[in-house]
Amino acid sequence: MNSTMHHILFALALFLLASPIFGQQAIIRNPEIRQLVEEVNADSLKKYTEKLASFHSRHTLNQDDKNGMIAAQNYVKAKFLEFASKSRGRMTANIEEFVVPGDGRRIVADATVGNVISRLPGTNPNDPRIVVISGHLDSRNKDIMDAKSAAPGANDNGSGVALVMELARILAQSEFSATLLFVVFTGEEQGLKGATYLADKAKAESWKIEAVLNNDIVGNSNSSETKISNNTVMRVFSETIPLAEDERGASIRRSINSDNDSPSRQLARYIKELGERYVDQMEVKLIYRNDRFLRGGDQTPFMKNGFTAVRMSEMNENFLYQHENVRVENGVQYGDLPEFMDFEYLRKVAAINLAAAASLGQSVGMPQDVKIDVRGLSNSSSISWKAPMHGKAKGYFVLMRETSSSLWEKKFYTEDTKLKLPYSKDNYFFAVQSVSERGTESLPVIPSPLSR
Ligand SMILES: [Zn+2]
């Protein structure tokens, strides 16, 4: 090839890189995670959901051990133990009981209730990080205090529990540096009781929870009222200003303008990037809210205790079925029944969760002490950090975006622990993530200012 030809090709390559109309994104899938994602199965999810909905009621205060809440908890625990048999003796499962005090509102009198928890310990005993994948088991009908009548709760939240079970089934066979906790909460509808119990305990015992992936109402793809049918979009809710922010945190946030960079928001972006990398025909929509109007979720007690948590939900809700008594009225069937669900959609939501959870489990820790030098006037940005506390990073990505952009736009790779970029610190936002030997990214950390 002559030199003119070289020049033309070089110019063409530059043009392709620079031109937005040829904007392209390299999709590099880690074969191990790709394989795990492919194992997520719509039929398994349907089977679990139908079984969960077949219990007469999973109301928190239902005590029926034949066909009610206690029986449902025993079913989930038995399935966890069945999956654990493939974990070479590592995974455990139990029902962790606690007393929820009567509050004169949604808990009539003191009651003993339980969360079902399955634990897959990390392979590195020096790595204390925990990734929580959760959903609530309890169901309700129109009357929040009715613990006796039918409450199948197929989508709210049989879908989230089926998702947690399916991830436990698949991930039990794999090894991760961090510990994975599969949690099926009780008492969500009665006021986030199970999640509050666990989040308070985690705080009191200083658990190193890296992320909480909470799933609630994730298996329907048709909206009521607006009649939208779309099984290619889901939502991730993340808090904007951290619920646990103190005065010092607020002061730092104001000085660096990190209003759109809470740890939960970073987790939401991470789920979007990793999820969409591995799951085809699925868009993760970031919702800049802790939750929907009038509604709450089990992610909130974790946020209140300073943990990084998000809520995942379907994009288009159908209010004909949620919290409704099972009945036929004017020829219309009401009630939260499996027949209204879309299990191919639920498969994709589960696959997004799996891609994120497996990546977090496999990653090394986040970079430490991430700083941006703001001591002088300059048209570049100097960022430095220290190696993660857990695991050995092969390198790091420095992430960059316009201050007006929601998502990270550029990733600069380095094997050093500092990087100077010819982009003004005044005009962009930055973050740093660790990259493991296998190429898996950690959650990103935004820099705090290194000042005089
Ligand atoms: Zn729910």
Give structural notes.
- The structure is a single chain.
- 30% of the residues lie in helices and 23% in strands.
- By secondary structure, the chain is of the alpha/beta class.
- It folds into 2 domains: 31-362, Zn peptidases (Aminopeptidase); 366-450, Immunoglobulins (Immunoglobulin-like), CATH 2.60.40.10.
- Helix 2 (31-38) runs antiparallel to helix 10 (343-362), helix 4 runs parallel beside helix 5 and helix 8 packs across helix 10 (343-362).
- It is globular.
- Residues 8-20 have low confidence and may be disordered.
Kindly name the structural category. Answer: alpha/beta
Report how far apart the termini are: 55 Å
Given as residue ranges, the uncertain stretches (5+ residues, pLDDT < 50) are: 8-20
Q: Determine the number of helices (DSSP H or I, runs of at least 4 residues).
A: 10
C-alpha Rg (nearest Å): 23 Å
